[in-house]
Amino acid sequence: MQDAKFTPPLFPIGLGSWHIGDDPEAADHNAQTVRFALDHGVNVLDTAEMYGDGASETVVGRGMAGVDRDKVFLISKFYPWHASARDLPRALEGSLRRLNTDYLDLYLLHWPGQVPLAETIKTLQDLQRQGLIKQYGVSNFDAAAMQELFRVPGGSEVQYNEDLYHLGSRGIEYDLLPWQRQHGVRLIAYSPLAHDWQTRQKITGKETLRAVAKAHGATPFQIMLAWAIRDGQTIAIPESTNPDHVATNIAAAKITLTKQDLAALDHAFPGPTQPEALDVL
């Protein structure tokens, strides 16, 4: 295994896996989709013990089989009620077993819970020293939670926060994103194409988005992805079980939006003008 500080160059569009293990009969196909993504440039895979009660981790692990492990940035997440010194090592052991690997590149607290952050961070540091995880971070943390985290010993070593972020959900731009940029914490944007069909239709139905997509010879979804990663620091993790969709998502990384594009999208999808409650799924 590489040194704990080693991080492969990260492709800005990864692969999410929330529902990728829900259908046992589709497990082979979904594992092949994971492998397709890895074979075509994706090197960030995101999963969690919550997804399918571990089934998604199993499918991701199957998709990784035979791939050079050091070239994959593997993320998993643990339940808040597994965040204690007693339960967290066992939760990690289960995830590693299902993923068929001996370490994670990034291990995230899935959302804030009742276990003291100081206890969770200390346990994560212990797991890091053992070589079982390279980095640790959080998910679904708002600005206040991140500030609390940074007051805990070791909390300032967190380099990633995974939150919902897309053209129709920009609330984190008001306070969370500026704070993270100031403190060197990268955003992992989950559901960058929106989660439900109704929201997606509302977003992609906007003429402005369609016009920008047409100008780039792209789809509205590709523009949504290009927008999400526009700062060069954000990693977007759209979920897909369709290799064709994965290929389309990968191609979005090559799209560079102009200042005029961004201004038009800002007008059609205004950013926040006051603090907003964190949007979560």
What can you see in these coordinates?
GO terms for molecular function: oxidoreductase activity. Pfam families: Aldo_ket_red. This is NADP-dependent oxidoreductase domain-containing protein. InterPro entries: AKR, NAD(P)_OxRdtase_dom_sf, NADP_OxRdtase_dom. The structure is a single chain. 42% of the residues are buried. The protein has a domain of 185 residues: Alpha-Beta Barrel (TIM Barrel), CATH 3.20.20.100. Strands 1-2-3-4-5-6-7 form a 7-stranded parallel sheet, covered by helices on one side. The N terminus is likely disordered. The longest helix is centred in the N-terminal third of the chain and has 13 residues. Helix 3 links the parallel strand 2 and strand 3. Helix content is 39%, strand content 12%. The protein is built from 11 helices and 7 strands. It has 281 residues and is α/β, with parallel strands linked by helices.
